[in-house]
Amino acid sequence: MRFMNHFLFSLLLSLAGLILFRPSWPLLYLFLGLVSGLLPDIDESRSFLGRKIRPVGWLLKHRGITHSALPVFFLGFGIWLVTKDFVFVYMVAVPYSGHLLLDSFTKAGIKPLLPFSRRSVHGPFRTGGLFDRMLQFFWLFIIAFLMVWAIQLFLP
Length: 156
Hints:
The chain has 7 helices and no strands. The N and C termini lie far apart (37 Å). The longest helix has 25 residues, at 130-154. Helix 1 (3-21) runs antiparallel to helix 6, helix 1 packs parallel to helix 7 (130-154) and helix 2 runs parallel beside helix 6. By secondary structure, it is mostly helical.
């Protein structure tokens, strides 16, 4: 999937987290969710985060270890040990996992159990294809609904 799909889906999942948990610092948690939803592509030197942190893209293969469940587990568990804040864990683990879910629908797919298994999970859709573009409009529709709901919750 392309950047915009990952960004919009991360926004959707982050807004859902804000609505569910109503954290005291919603903008911080929203930012955290957006960044974590883009984090798996840090291994791609042409991606949004990969351009900002180039050495990672040089060291890791795209859709390798960053596109597996291992980082989700370690990030989530590590954050839980440090903060004991379930909302913080949600805002990192769920958008990150959402990125992996979207990429699993592409022809390139992902290897979710790396480094323990090289078996890949992939779908029928081409990155940047019609489905990729149509999905963006679907996310926008749901985000508009969630934005109205979130604004009503957080504004006095």
